[in-house]
Amino acid sequence: MADYDVIILGGGPGGYLAAERLGHRKLKVLLVEQESLGGTCLNVGCIPTKSLLNSAKLYAHAQHSEQFGVTATGVAYDWTQVQAWKADVVGKLVAGVGASEKRAGVEVAHAHGSLVAPGVVEVAGERKTADHVIIATGSVPVLPPIPGAADNPLVVDSTGLLAVESVPQRLVVIGGGVIGVEFASLFAAFGAQVEVIEMLPEILPFMDDDLAARTRKALTGVTFRLGCRVTGIANSEDGSATVVYTDAKGAEQRAEADLVLMAVGRRPLVQGWGAEEAGLEVGPRGVVVDDTMRTNLPNVWAVGDVTGRSLLAHAAYRMGEIAAAHIIDPVAARRNGQRLRTDTIPWAVYSMPEAAGVGLTEAQAKERGHDVITATVPLAVSGRFVAENGVRGPGAVKLIADRGTRAVLGVHMLGSYAPETIWGAATALETELTIDDLRQVVFPHPTVSEGIREAAWAITD
Ligand SMILES: Cc1cc2nc3c(=O)[nH]c(=O)nc-3n(C[C@H](O)[C@H](O)[C@H](O)COP(=O)(O)OP(=O)(O)OC[C@H]3O[C@@H](n4cnc5c(N)ncnc54)[C@H](O)[C@@H]3O)c2cc1C
């Protein structure tokens, strides 16, 4: 008999939620985490960034509240307290994960784990056996081979930037994806001069082009350099760095910085825990899995960032749940359609303003051969949005549908509460609603979510 029913490598969202689901079904589970429960998301990702962004938003609101009849004088921020708030939030949530695992009867090992073979894992040098193994080792930041970037104290990744002791005066962000944009917005709100250098012609490549352009224009205090390739970073004696890049026209340009954030993406952590030695299939995106999170090895599953199927915490949760469901009762899991559908995973950007979306962009829908119909409405259609932002506040919803079937293919939103609202659109995609179905859904009034309903009605038949 094996020591455990399931051993899980990695205590981030994918690993810890799978552990809880399995524990609640009375399976004997060992969750192995080498750093801190909660993984990237709770410790150095989703949660600390949102804590800092919340402080930045409060600071920005306090400075711009006169039009709402509220005058705040002496508005200032205290970076030490901003960081203390972040640490307090992270600490409480990490402790909460520990408590949840305990409640679920999950044993936690704070140690490094390695896969030896299917059903065999080495934990802190000791061999343990299990009927199933779930790999949930997550991802790490990519450091591209840009001359002058490696071992440069003025070049940090997201984890380094989260921990800075003060707000840099000039921040250069390399990469205009979610992480780059959130940090740019955050530090711009705290008064830093921020430049984002992006290789592609637009930021946020997963967002519909029209709305990505609107988002970029709405991000005040941030200068974007699009279609630009960074070629080197050199430090000066005065303690600053010069980022050299080639602009869209091929000319060499320079950006001066007190700190440089390298935010060009993350890669799955597939080394250092025995993947190759155990014979696990690893592709260019990460550990290869099918839609039920099965790897090529018997009873070895992989979930979350390490699979490269989606680099989002809620996708990791879902993958963890799918693997757990198939381990608990494979027949029921198949019958209930427990499989990963990446097309319906929403995404969100918590910048100022916020943005979110789910499903295809207009360009992707066309590439897939859809005869596309779209509608874009300003969020000024929402009374609540106008009450809080004015009619000119940055906000819009774009809905993308198939002309023939009238199925909703994508919803992309810019504006306040978009991340809180988008799950409704995700449900529409998940349940394959048509525009006509969506038009029959009653939305609460006044809410920003009504923008989605207005977009459905704005499609011309
Ligand atoms: C700055 C930043 C902001 C982000 N913001 C968001 C957001 O707002 N929303 C969102 O959805 N996503 C966000 N993400 C992405 C999110 O953090 C990840 O998608 C999510 O954490 C992936 O979960 P995971 O369980 O796959 O891996 P991880 O959270 O990376 O957890 C993996 C865990 O495995 C452990 N581990 C690795 N190898 C071993 C081993 N051999 N033995 C034992 N333990 C091991 C690691 O220590 C780690 O704790 C953000 C990421 C970053 C960097």
Q: What's the short version?
A:
The protein is of the alpha/beta class and 461 residues long.
Q: Overview of this structure, please?
A:
This protein has 15 helices and 24 strands. The chain is α/β, with parallel strands linked by helices. The chain folds into three domains: 4-140 and 267-335, 3-Layer(bba) Sandwich (FAD/NAD(P)-binding domain), CATH 3.50.50; 155-264, FAD/NAD(P)-binding domain (3-Layer(bba) Sandwich), CATH 3.50.50; 353-458, FAD/NAD-linked reductase, C-terminal dimerisation domain (Enolase-like, domain 1), CATH 3.30.390. Strands 1, 2, 3, 4, 5, 6 and 19 form a seven-stranded mixed beta sheet that branches. A hairpin with a 2-residue loop joins strand 5 and strand 6.
Q: Within the CATH hierarchy, at the fold level, what is the topology of the largest domain?
A: FAD/NAD(P)-binding domain
* Shape summary: globular
Alpha carbon gap, first and last residue: 63 Å
Low-confidence stretches: none
CATH superfamily of the largest domain: FAD/NAD(P)-binding domain
Q: What is the mean predicted local confidence, pLDDT?
A: 97
**Ligand inventory:** flavin-adenine dinucleotide
Q: Classify the helix fraction into a percent range.
A: 25-40%
Which properties best describe this structure?
461 residues; 5-stranded parallel β-sheet; single chain; 7-stranded mixed β-sheet; 24 strands; 15 helices; FAD/NAD(P)-binding domain; binds flavin-adenine dinucleotide; Enolase-like, domain 1; 3 domains; 25% strand; globular; alpha/beta
